[in-house]
Amino acid sequence: MDACQAYSMAQDLDPNSEGRGVLQFKTGLMSVIKQKLAKRDGSQIDRNRDIERLWEFYQRYKQRHRVDDIRREEEKWRESGVFSTNVGELLEMRKVFATLRALIEVMKALSKDASPELGRLIMSELRGIEKSDVALSGELMPYNIVPLEAPSLTNAIGVFPEVRGATSAVRYAENFPRLPAGFEISGQRDADMFDLLEFVFGFQRDNIRNQRENVILTIANAQSHLGFPDERDPKIDEKAINEVFKKVLDNYMKWCQYLRIRMAWNRYSPATWCYKVLCLFPLLTLFSSCSYYIFFPFSSDALTRERKLFLVSLYFLIWGEAANVRFLPECICYIFHHMAKELDAILDHGEAYVADSCKTGRGSVSFLEQVIHPIYKTMAKEAERNSEGRASHSASRNYDDFNEYFWSPTCFELGWPMKRDSAFLREPKKHAIQLRMSLGSIKDGLSKPVTAMWVTAKSSFVEHRTFLHLYRSFHRMWIFLVIMFQALAIIAFSDQKLNLDTLKILLTIGPTFAVMNFMESEYSLCVLVSVPLPVGCLDLLLMFGAYTMLRGMAISRLVIRFFWWGASSAAVLYLYLKVLGEWNRQQTNSFYFRIYILVLGVYAAVRLVFAVFLKFPACHSLSRMSDQRFFQFFKWIYQERYFVGRGLFEKPTDYGRYVLYWLVIFVCKFTFAYFLQIKPLVNPTRIIVQLPSIRYSWHDLVSRHNHNALTVASLWAPIYLMDIHIWYTLLSALVGGVMGARARLGEIRSIEMVHKRFESFPAAFVKNLASPRMKRHISQESNKTYAAMFAPFWNEIIKSMREEDFISNREKDLLSMPSNTGTLPLVQWPLFLLSSKILMAIDLALDCKDTQADLWNRICRDDYMAYAVQECYYSIEKILHSLVDGEGRRWVERIYREINNSIMEGSLVLTLNLQKLPLVQSRFTALTGLLIRNETPELARGAAKALLDFYDVVTQDLLSRDLSEQIGTWNILVKAKNEGRLFSRIEWPKDPEINEQVKRLHLLLTVKDSAANIPKNLEARRRLEFFTNSLFMDMPAAKPVCEMMPFSVFTPYYSETVLYSSSELRVENEDGVSILFYLQKIFPDEWENFLERINRGESSGDIDFEESSSDNLELRFWASYRGQTLSRTVRGMMYYRRALMLQSFLEKRGLTDEGNYSQSNPMTSLGFELSSEARAQADLKFTYVVSCQIYGQQRQRKAPEAADISLLLQRNEALRVAFIHQEERVEENGDVSMEYYSKLIKADIHGKDQEIYSIKLPGNPKLGEGKPENQNHAIVFTRGEAIQTIDMNQDNYLEEAIKMRNLLEEFHGKHGIRRPTILGVREHVFTGRYCTRLLQYNYLASLQFLMKETCCILLCSVSSLASFMSNQETSFVTLGQRVLAKPLKTYDKEFELDTSKSVLGC
């Protein structure tokens, strides 16, 4: 490295030379470069002097920025655990560290050209810095959330006791196997469990770093649910370790139970001996072959906490490096099962050694190469045969087929290490996949082993595209409708005579039921063998190779059902024919009739009993416990056994509601069908049938000797089936509407309702959205206390609306709520509620000719008018007290004492001349108009004069004559006024509380606008209505931020618009309309608010914006926030972090002493965005990852999307971007191959992309659908227990992000037998001029839906069809989803589940 490279580094670190001393440093380097260029003749360049200057600059820079003091502060911080640096100081400190690093690198490069003495001095200094300056390396080493490689002074998350306890929990212990002496520990940390796993199995270094942080955060969050550990010596509770262990390995435990195998750690568990003793009892013959794991679902008694953490870490590492194999969760269980056994053996050994399963032929260790790559290679070959989805479903194996291979014990034939020549890993032949088994080998008598020729094929399902699925998928409904139609028609044609003959005819439903079931089973078999039947045998032979042994059992099951229903259908038909014969012979002894009734009754009773008993969870548990072949056979016939979907049953009460709902529908449907459809057609049908033969031109085909059957069929065909959905829709609307009313939906439907109910908002907010940690600091419950807790959140909501340009500055002032933490003895409401109330009260006083009580009653008819009058009265007193002292303060006290006495006596209308109130109001408004401005000598004199005028008006005009004379002759005031001392000097308001009251009182006295016009923007009104309405809904209580469930938001992105460019905004279409012009016309008020926010006038043109780069950038964001862009989604999702920071700041967790809460104002949110503790707490609970699949390619070709994504990273420090990076690799034989990496980046202190993790993939991750595989490669970078999947066309609001804690508590709620793992969404479609997409949350506690997502339909207001679709989506679809959630408990959304995370729907 030379001076040119040093200059290049400095230019990259600080291109604009903004840092102190950077410009001088670059100038010095430039002089060295010029000196070198001037002496190209090869003569020696004397650089000693330049290096000496650089050394001197380095020393001065350290002294100027107190680097040595920083080291001492670091030592003190480590000893005490106190972290009090604010964010501004943190950012400056990071810049100092970055500059020091650049200086160190430059001095390293140039020291070789220095004199020996200076060189030794520099190298000695550098070695000392590298060894001792932990703070420097800690700040400059890339990390994601927690700085684990080295401690950091600028990140408070490492100070939290739960994080320190989790870090110490995974630290290497003395009883662990010894690592080799040459094993390198990355960073400046102690060895831990992950280092052993890296050495043994060869996991990638960045996968180790990623999952180390993931495990530590998981343990820390689990501990925070139980309470904080001791800060002096933090230890993680055993309960937290067990919770993480069970949650992470839950799927593995269920997999072991399903396959009836022992878990990897159950070698010497006490439960094993208990099970052996239990099986000795002869009375338990029902469970004699019961699986060990039925009684003991898992047993971790023999595991120490260290081994539990080893297993959890191993599972996460396998999952983190599995790439596309993550789509095979049971395959991961298989891999973990064997690797856990290997790890168990290694942990029992004194020395660590390499696992045999991960050894490569080159002598190295690689989990990716030896375990993942063979599976990936086979899946990639199968994907090639799929032809991007154009091939038939049976042509290749997909992810489900690979995964279902591990649903059978035969998967253990794969062995460990996995046999490369196994049927599972064998790559498909180019043209032989349809014929999985060689026909030639069959002719030769299967001379070769079958496994040597097979490639494992479709496991349990092969799709055949046919219209017969309309019958197969809904065969139960078809059978039910046909049977009911047959019964109702028989009753109608029997003239409603229910006798024995009618009953015998009704019994024809028995053969109908048997035949239709036989048709269903026959169809299943025909689909299996691919009818038509003439070639059915050949198709069956060709399709046999597409099934494994498990599918062979499925074939057997279908064949057995086919013959069973065939035999039962024949038997029922035979019996009924015998019954008809007895009926025709009119025999009195109806033997076959009794047999027929007995058969049907027994069958119906058995089906009914089983249907009822299977609705009880205990019966399901009993059936699972029994392994007797007799029971298992009938269970298998009834339903084939799968790993996924088993045990899907609900509580009996839920089934009862479900049955009752459909029973009402069918009663209405069949009642309507019988009386209005079937019965009226009986007589016309009889007449048509009895008509003589009618000759038609086509009578030979249809009409001859068939009693006009075609006419009858045409008459009956349009009825019966069409109305069932109508009844379902009507009942859904009725039930959904009632449930919505019970859930208090729609209570606040207009801005007028917001005004009327605002007084109740604080209490509702505290009840539902305030955490217990925030409530416990309330000394006494009162409306003022509730208002003080509500005000910070309300004001942040209003502030966010101003930042989004939905409201103006003036509307923001009117909508903002005072802190209510002052000394005023009443609640201060937002000014938009009190606007013009004082003026209206003055008008009432002017018209008053009654007593004081009558006047006050008239004022109290409007609650907010009474609040305004009281606040104005107390505020004037407090402001005047703060302005004057001496004689002036005595005058104020005397006036208020007289007025208070008159109020108590009820003689206020006599004490004051109410006709002079407008004059008093004008004089005091003149005073406050001066006080709201910054103090100047001229303004001070004007304020003194205005106060004196106010004194004169009050004393001479407002007070009664007697009281005016008393005060006018008061010697103290007369003397002070004569001497010019009265109000000659006033104390300008400097206290924040007084300043706030002055501004507020001035607006209260001057604003004349009606509250109905505030806010003017319709979207702002809608959001306020929606948020305030949700405050009254039932929802789970909010946990404190430090105890809430951590979650991640995940957004996939490909190549859509990130941010509109200036040219895109201004380019005109064929109609001469640009995007900017269009947005200005459809959002005129928001455009005016935007210009006001950037301090520009309404006449600002494009030229003005182009001249200012900052304003032009704001213009780009303003337009992008009103389109379908990634920047809009990122802004909306980052509201989660902002809400968590605000909530955490107000809860005042404190890192060392919770008593800090009382030392400052607990209700203020001032400075919460700069609080290091609040930021760290939010980062501990929230992660946002955008998976930009081709960002690496965009960055290489310098696409504008890459620059825009980099800009988003700079503006959002918590944003992380994951992408797939491609590199060319030249093999030893000269071939060029492509390597793929999954990378995670963030913005560094200089706004550059900083790589955090880089995990190598086995190959191209895109094997099937691009979007899920784009999400799959980046999901390893998410954190927490829940994932919210959000598309890049959605937005979010701060007021809805505040409810996220309540939403996450739904995962802990009970909505049936099982706790929910998926929270669905309800859709909101809007039209009109808002042709953009939004996301909003609607808390519906009575449903299991909380979020309200826009499913946007980009339609314009010119379409009436669009308005109709919007209205029906808002009404009927919403009502329908509400009913699907309860009582039906059926969901119309599907989601992808992660191995250890719950899912929030998108």
Question: Can you give a write-up of this model?
Answer:
With 1402 residues, the chain is mainly alpha-helical. It has a 10-stranded mixed sheet with strand order 5-4-3-2-1-6-10-7-9-8, with helices on both faces. Strand 3 and strand 4 (1232-1243) form a beta hairpin. Helix 5 (87-110) crosses helix 7 (134-140). Residues 79-85, 131-135, 268-298, 431-453, 522-550, 1151-1160, 1323-1358 and 1388-1398 have low confidence and may be disordered.
Task: Report the total helices.
Answer: 63
Sheet having the most strands: 10 strands, mixed
* Share in helix: 55-70%
How many whole angstroms does the radius of gyration measure?
A: 40 Å
C-alpha end-to-end distance? 51 Å
The fraction of residues in strands falls at 5-15%
- Widest sheet: strand ordering: 5-4-3-2-1-6-10-7-9-8
Name the shape in a single word: globular
Q: Tell me how many strands there are.
A: 10
Subcellular location: Cell membrane
Organism: Carnegiea gigantea
InterPro entries: CALS1_helical, FKS1-like_dom1, Glyco_trans_48_dom
GO cellular component, one term: plasma membrane
